[in-house]
Amino acid sequence: MGQLVHTLPDDGLVDGVTLLAGEIYLLREKERDQVEVYDVTTYRLQRRLTVPVARSFTDMTSCEHNRCVYIGNGGKLKCVHRLDVQGAVTRWAVNDTPRGLSVNAVHNVLVTCPLVRKIKEFSSHGDLLRELTLPDDVICPWHAIQTRSGQFIVCHGDLDDPVHRVCMISADGCHIVHSHGGQPGSHTDQCNGPHRLAVDDNECVFVADYYNRRVTLLSPTLEYVRQVVLCDLLKGAPRYLYLDTRQRLLYVAVNKGEWRWRGYAAAFSV
User: Fold this and answer.
1) Average pLDDT of the chain to the nearest whole number
2) Domain extent at residue 149
3) Apex CA 234: angle with CA 232 and CA 239, to 5°?
4) What pLDDT, on a 0 to 100 scale, did the predictor assign at position 261?
5) What's the total number of domains in the chain?
6) Count of C-beta atoms within a 10 Å radius of residue 85
7) What CATH number has the domain bearing residue 82?
């Protein structure tokens, strides 16, 4: 099991967590000062950044090579914001509702669009490089990560969907190579709302299993390995993940519904 190392403040709804240049970036759903930046060693708040004219966030990821953070925006904008370490913000249109974001080995941005079952690949400044349409039975894809071999790890399935899985999909997006899950459930070979993924240097896969309130570790061929974080270590449901491969720390963004939605992020040693 992962050991809890630190918990960041419990406040408004969390829409993403990532690391960049030795700092933790935490995204919250509010009108301004949406991005909170914490020191990665002391966990002290360093500053707050505002993404102008932005609500309905969907995810956040980072790129050390380009020294920037990418933020998905649903709602009417349907765009990705690019926030650099100095705080400058630009954005580009996705033209479909973006959900999960990731950066591949050549530093391009992968945007998962669930309503059209597509992965769109953009350059760091928003040039559309290609679109992949996923197989017909990959319903409601939440997040995609590209492996070094070019294949994609994709998680999909929400509430009323008949299939909830993590799939390895061929580099052309056409074929499912391996999968974990099927009918939604709580058994170790099932998942229920797999919302986000993280992949380590060995290509083992961490899965934020939202409705089961746990984080699961899968092998590179998507076989069950163990539970990393169980619900008794969380105060809500895990929605977003970021893996610091150097420190072997998994950052888990957790949201919970009480009289209003609140959220926090926690670091676990893995």
Assistant:
1) 94
2) 3-269
3) 135
4) 66
5) 1
6) 16
7) 2.120.10.30
